[in-house]
Amino acid sequence: MKLSARNMLKGTVVSITKGATTAHVRLDVAGTVVTSAITNEAVDELGLVVGQSAYAVVKASDVMIAID
User: Fold this and answer.
1) Fewest 10 Å CB contacts: which of 15, 17, 26, 47?
2) 36-43: long-range contacts at Cβ-Cβ below 8 A with a sequence spacing of 24 or more?
């Protein structure tokens, strides 16, 4: 797989919750859970299942940093 996105976080699918058209896919990335909203069709096309490895690919023009 080659992508132009520079931020690819490898993790494990911990849950998939399908709605009417959109699914929330949660990945455990080194102990931090990252949630993505993708179409139900994308979940099916990718064959996503709980327990498999997957990547959260972040493509953004800006990434902000915050502190408390």
Assistant:
1) 47
2) 43/16, 43/18
Give tens-digit pLDDT for 8-46. Answer: 899 999 999 999 999 999 999 999 999 999 999 999 999
The CA-atom distances, in angstroms, between 46 and each of 6, 31, 32, 43 are 21, 23, 22, 5
Q: pTM for the whole thing?
A: 0.85
Alpha-helix runs per DSSP H in 1-68: 40-46
Task: Retrieve residue 66's tokens.
Answer: 């915050």
Question: Rounded distance, CA 17 to CA 24, Å?
Answer: 5
**What is the rounded distance in angstroms from the CA atom of residue 15 to the CA atom of residue 54?**
12
Distance CA 65, CA 5 (A): 19
